């Protein structure tokens, strides 16, 4: 049965180094998240404030519409003393101005509604962005931690072997020294260490 590989050989060294690196990255990312969060929060606050202003403008527009309606009704009741030609001319002008005003006010009102929808979408997107940043940050930290554990395994593995072989020599045993794996660190030093151990065994 094939022995399951353990990436944790020297817990103090591997966990210590990995936690330090992850800790430093975490602090950096925390500042980034904080900065982005502050910006998004300010944008949300500004958007919410704009929405209130737009709602106020919409109410003003509605009041103007009511006022124009009232003015139009009053001017449409022109005194009977005015001749028909003058009456017709005034009525046509009032009707034209009124229709143009209504058209412009309706366009403004619709534009305000679109802005409100857009602002609400911005708030939703900002919220999703915050959640996405948090998820990606913790996912990235998890991946980084795993990669560091595997990398430190290439360092602690040779150190573990050299320590074990040294103890065997000190206890009078002849260690069966194997080669390091292709991706292990300290390859050159390990070869020198093997020669030193072999020489030490001969001199006994």
Short description:
This protein is mostly helical. Helices cover 83% and strands 0% of the residues.
What can you see in these coordinates?
With 204 residues, this protein is mostly helical. The chain has a domain at 11-150. The chain is 83% helix and 0% strand. The protein is built from three helices and no strands. The protein has helices spanning 11-76, 84-170, 187-202. Helix 1 (11-76) runs antiparallel to helix 2 (84-170) and helix 2 (84-170) runs parallel beside helix 3 (187-202). The radius of gyration is 40 Å and the shape is rod-shaped. The two termini are 38 Å apart. The model has no long low-confidence stretch (mean pLDDT 79).
Which helices and strands appear, and what pairs or packs with what?
Layout: H1 11-76, H2 84-170, H3 187-202
Helix pairs in contact: 1-2, 2-3
| Rg computed from alpha carbons, rounded to a whole number of angstroms | 40 Å
Report the order of strands and helices: HHH
Summing up helix and strand content along with how strands pair, one would put the structural category as mainly alpha
Largest sheet data: none
Give the beta-strand count: 0
Distance between the termini: 38 Å
SS element count, helices: 3
What value does the average pLDDT take? 79
Helix percentage range? over 70%
Overall shape: it is rod-shaped
| Model regions low in confidence, pLDDT < 50 over at least 5 residues | none
Strand fraction band? Answer: under 5%
Structure characteristics:
204 residues, single chain, mainly alpha
């Amino acid at each position: 049965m094939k022995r399951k590989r353990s990436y944790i050989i020297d817990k103090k060294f591997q966990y210590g180094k990995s936690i330090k690196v992850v800790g430093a990255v975490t602090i950096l990312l925390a500042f980034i998240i904080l900065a982005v969060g502050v910006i998004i929060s300010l944008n949300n606050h500004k958007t919410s404030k704009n929405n209130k202003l737009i709602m106020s403008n919409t109410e003003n527009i509605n009041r103007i519409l009511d006022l124009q309606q009232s003015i139009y009704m009053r001017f449409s009741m022109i005194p009977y003393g005015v001749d028909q030609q003058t009456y017709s001319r005034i009525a046509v002008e009032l009707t034209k101005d009124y229709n143009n005003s209504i058209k412009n006010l309706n366009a403004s009102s619709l534009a305000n509604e679109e802005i409100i929808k857009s602002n609400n979408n911005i708030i939703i997107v900002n919220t999703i962005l915050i959640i996405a940043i948090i998820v990606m940050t913790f996912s990235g930290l998890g991946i980084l931690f795993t990669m560091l554990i595997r990398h430190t395994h290439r360092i602690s593995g040779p150190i573990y072997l050299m320590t074990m072989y040294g103890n065997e020599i000190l206890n009078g045993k002849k260690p069966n020294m194997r080669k390091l794996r292709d991706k292990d660190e300290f390859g050159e030093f390990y070869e020198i260490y093997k020669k030193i151990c072999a020489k030490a065994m001969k001199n006994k």
